[in-house]
Amino acid sequence: MKIIVIILTLLLTTEIYCQDFINKKSVILEIAGSAGVGSINFENVFARKGQANLLWRVGISGFPIDKNNGFVFVLPATIGALIGQGSNKLELGIGQGVSLTTKGRLFALATPIIGYRHQNINKRYFFRITYTPLVSYILDFQYQNWAGVSIGYNLNFK
């Protein structure tokens, strides 16, 4: 996680300008990924710094776990950057997922993100594939390899 923070810090101080700026608002359907089984997310690209488009994303998910925990609602939140020029981008970020079960149990998992996004600025739809390990760090440290695939839709496409 320290490496991701260092990379994002370096990106925020870079002054190289890119040719394109990805559309600002999107809805993303993610299978697996930051929220476990899947989620629907709203994303906003809020700034460009050098070759990086900076973004935040929030979502919601819900699915049954087991009879001891019942149904779980997951609220993932992410901050990150899309790096590169043209349609092919490297996506880096860090997220936090908060889960609440119908049995009253609360969980929190960090989700570092590294992935690939194909997003043509002339198209409404885009896709991404990400490595999003689930990291438990509050009571004990646990690390679970995880990944996701997504399809997104640009809301403010011109």
Record the SSE blueprint.
Blueprint: H1 2-12, E1 25-32, E2 38-49, E3 52-66, E4 70-83, E5 88-101, E6 106-118, E7 125-131, E8 134-136, E9 142-144, E10 147-154
Antiparallel strand pairs: 1-2, 1-10, 2-3, 3-4, 4-5, 5-6, 6-7, 7-10, 8-9
Could you explain the architecture of this structure?
The chain is mainly beta and 158 residues long. It has one domain: Porin (Beta Barrel), CATH 2.40.160. The chain is 7% helix and 61% strand. The chain is built from 1 helix and 10 strands; from the N terminus they run αββββββββββ. An 8-stranded antiparallel β-barrel has the order 1-2-3-4-5-6-7-10. β5 and β6 form a beta hairpin. The longest helix has 11 residues, at 2-12. Residues 13-19 have low confidence and may be disordered.
